[in-house]
Amino acid sequence: MSREYPERPLLGVGGVVIREGRALIVRRATEPLKGEWSIPGGLVELGEKLVDAVAREVLEETGLVVEPGEVLELFDSIWRDADGRCQYHYVLVDYLCRVTGGELEAATDVSDARWIRPQEIDDFGLRPATQGVLRKGFERFPNQPS
């Protein structure tokens, strides 16, 4: 099924990765959101559990091995074109994640990856939903050890 103008909503996951009081953000290299900062994540594959999907996506995009924990947010991301047609529709599940291994490196689907402090959330043009879920992550795990 196509991501653009899909026949039904697509299921995606995101990883809110908090380490040593910083959150991981990535710059998207592909549409939608090309060039924008976000959290690592992507689509769930057929037969894949949600927690496995978020761990896979974070690893693929950043080189970090994570252990998904609690669900921080569940929401719809719906974008309509100028004619009002549904261009994108994702149902997204964002998990709080803890790093268990790997080295940070921008990889598939992202052009950059970096750690930010809570006071830097407003500096990267993050979408309001992303800002909100990052703030939730910082509240739940403000000073998690590496």
From TrEMBL:
SUPFAM superfamilies, per database record: Nudix
UniProt keyword Hydrolase present: yes
Residues in Nudix hydrolase domain copies: 8-139
GO molecular function: hydrolase activity
UniProt entry keywords in alphabetical sequence: Hydrolase
Claim: NADP is one of the keywords in the record: no
Family: Belongs to the Nudix hydrolase family.
Protein name: NUDIX hydrolase
Source organism of this protein record: Koribacter versatilis (strain Ellin345)
